[in-house]
Description:
- The protein is of the alpha+beta class.
- Helix content is 19%, strand content 44%.
- A nine-stranded antiparallel beta sheet has the order 14-11-12-13-26-25-24-18-22.
- The longest helix is centred in the last third of the chain and has 15 residues, at 261-275.
Amino acid sequence: MKISIAQPDLLPALTSVSRSVGVKANLPVLGNILLSAESNKLTLSATNLEIGIIKSISCEVIDPGDITIPAKTILEIIQSLGAVKVEVETIGDNMSISSGKFKASLNCIPSSEFPVIPLSSEKGITIKKEVIANIPSIIFAAAIDEGRPTLTGILTELEDSHLNFVATDGFRLAHQQVKLTELDSGTKIKVLIPKRTFEEVVRVIAEEGIEEIEMAASNSQNQIIFKIGSSTISSRLIEGPFPGWEKLIPTEHKTRLILDRSELVAAVKLASVFAKSESNIITFKLSEGKVVLQSQSKELGSQENEVDGQVEGEDVTIAYNARFLTDAIGASNASQLIMEFQGSLSATLIKPMGIEGLEYILMPVRQS
């Protein structure tokens, strides 16, 4: 293989694919990036066996070929070169990198040892980038504990032109529903996609600057494939049952609160100062049209703060985990929030006003 490429073209591609490089002592090739050159195109691939990414860029191909190179080393070299032309040539299992007066030789691993990144030949769906780019507003609710692997994923379910994203860790739930148009009737998808995969997809969408992406589920290979401009992301799906989330969303309420989101965020932040030393609890008291936030600590003392809001219905006193509450009210950019309560021990429904299909379920904390 022999190619010539501009450093400003190569560096972003290396940076993007290197995020998916794996580290496994028994498979050193996972620490490498596969370079494949042909037809004036350089394709870079990396995988950690959970997520794989393939990215293509234009370059001058003098001799086609392929090889794998150490990701960390090549990235550091290209970062340090500056905006220059770079010549890359393979000699056996070594690679020569030269630019101006600089020349280096890298020990490589043959491309035959690089694992195949699964791709899907099955028909997928095309969606606007905003559908996925807004996914951070719900994925915070996914579990971190690998002891319950199904809760570490995001349920992605398409049926009757409605695409649902659902995340839960058993204590809170976040749900976003998007109405899709121009879909073939009968198109269905129901998969559990790892949270880390969506995080990477969001990064690549920002890097590519495109308007639409393609998503296809390959059930035969247990993979989800995202095509994003010149990049393709392939990820293993999570297997196992996801909780029946529809039953967890309250359909009735006894108390309803409408308030300014930024004011509530500021009040919760203040209340959290006094909640840290105890069990991280913030208490809401709604009565006579007032909203009062309380928290206390044996070491620090206590605080009480009244927040303006419209209260309808019965009085209620309810307590929340401060971090979970902060996540739910801070995830959207809505100017106002609607909070609906059934009682002090029932789940609270939080809906950002003006953002259709987005809602959060927060379980209260039982106080002694």
